[in-house]
Amino acid sequence: MTAVSDELRANGRVIALVPTMGYFHRGHLSLFQVAKANADLLVVSIFVNPIQFGPAEDYRGYPRNVDGDRAMAQNAGVDYLFCPEADVMYPSGYSTYVEVTALQHLLCGAFRPHHFKGVATICLKLFNIVKPHVVVFGQKDAQQAVIIRRMIQDLNLDLEMIVAPTVREPDGLAASSRNEYLTSEEREEAVVLHKALEHARRLIESGERRYETVRGEIVALIQEKPLAELEYAEIVEADTLKKVDPLRGDILIAVACRFGKARLIDNIALKI
Amino acid sequence: MTAVSDELRANGRVIALVPTMGYFHRGHLSLFQVAKANADLLVVSIFVNPIQFGPAEDYRGYPRNVDGDRAMAQNAGVDYLFCPEADVMYPSGYSTYVEVTALQHLLCGAFRPHHFKGVATICLKLFNIVKPHVVVFGQKDAQQAVIIRRMIQDLNLDLEMIVAPTVREPDGLAASSRNEYLTSEEREEAVVLHKALEHARRLIESGERRYETVRGEIVALIQEKPLAELEYAEIVEADTLKKVDPLRGDILIAVACRFGKARLIDNIALKI
């Protein structure tokens, strides 16, 4: 992969990378489109990264479909699919990890203590192997995007990061490989995450600035659903991920909620 | 700096980087020579890296002499001196750190708990800014070299690492900016580190393979010196830095010892 990239770079071609865990859906396809619009060539990596899953999480069961992914990638105009094996990425004796200390234990990080260390580490490895000029991430994984942006800046990585909008199902549910886990009942209830976020948006647009009020209404809406197990609903500064009260500036409203086996996240970004 | 490197690379020039904390002595000059022999252009960075010093350590007092360094660099044929400021390398909000977990708390790391995290982080930043093909480190800082080599491998960095031999004063003391701190009495005693290591080498060459025996003789020789405060004397595997007993394979014999204000380190590498 590095040899391919070196040759492309030597020929002046602009390389985009979209790092993924595979099991492509419309969300991924949208990232590919954004990437292609900003580069000459698109590399997509598929790697279900073991070190970003906790011991009780769904690493083994995470949905995989490499053949289906390959077909979708070809249709989408992906130039290179990079699919390394776990024992090549983390050989015996592997010891190096990247941490973004101020951001990694907030929001999802409070529930997944080693998750973002694993995410930052694999992204840095993929950046070093693929040597892209441009990397594209999705807004759906908002905290991941903030952390990778911070890492790129802090480690002086010479690449541009683009965050592409969340792609949603017709009813508003954010596209996610983990939607696969939902029973039809859970699937029906899961749209509440989007509805609660949009309700919060309207509250704020109508002038509400009290953190507790907005957050309280999000929580109440989600908790009306019998199958929803809310992990968190937070309103934070978009770059520092710190709680903001009263609401002002660039903010992120983020939720994480379990429906049965599926842990779903969603968010909206607002400028007040 | 990155723009300069990009242009050099685009023109096919091979760039070497020697990262330093300045206050050049013969040890640095030897690294520069090795680097120049392996590249078209030599970049030397001077940066006294605050995050690799503990709160009670000598960050503020670390010897600095940028004018003298510049003159020596010019004489030595250094092409670029890169001297960033601390608040540029670590601006407000800085949060990203690299750890080499299996190696960073051994040997010196047991006495300097955040030191190698700071070293790995600044080296990665400098590599990303300067984009060298070749980096050169000194064997005197043996643990640093092992950690940086591991980081390069683990993070898939596309660069070659060369470790150059330790340069010594005529009596055998390893060249170090911190020798500056020694009083003449301490300076006289400090040569015991080299003598003890050479004694250990002879013991092993004459067939001794017992860890405790070899280590015991090193410790005894150093402790004969009234001004020596030994931190550790260890015999470890050269790549894992783990204690090796009985002695075999590629080993590193490493010592750290205080003489007054100066904390000095030295080592020898042996193949048994």
Automatic annotation (TrEMBL), chains A, B:
Function: Catalyzes the condensation of pantoate with beta-alanine in an ATP-dependent reaction via a pantoyl-adenylate intermediate.
Gene Ontology MF, one: ATP binding
Pathway(s) where this gene product acts: Cofactor biosynthesis; (R)-pantothenate biosynthesis; (R)-pantothenate from (R)-pantoate and beta-alanine: step 1/1
Keywords: ATP-binding, Cytoplasm, Ligase, Nucleotide-binding, Pantothenate biosynthesis
EC number from the UniProt entry: 6.3.2.1
Active site per UniProt: 28
Subunit and interaction comment: Homodimer.
Protein name: Pantothenate synthetase
Species this protein is from: candidate division TA06 bacterium DG_26
Signal sequence, renumbered to the chain: none
GO CC terms, sorted: cytosol
Catalytic activities: (R)-pantoate + beta-alanine + ATP = (R)-pantothenate + AMP + diphosphate + H(+)
UniProt: beta-alanine binding residues: 52
Subcellular localization(s) per the UniProt record: Cytoplasm
Superkingdom, natural source: Bacteria
NCBIfam families named in the record: cyt_tran_rel, panC
Residues reported in the UniProt entry to bind (R)-pantoate: 52, 144
InterPro entries membership: Cyt_trans-like, Pantoate_ligase, Pantoate_ligase_C, Rossmann-like_a/b/a_fold
Miscellaneous comment in the UniProt entry for this protein: The reaction proceeds by a bi uni uni bi ping pong mechanism.
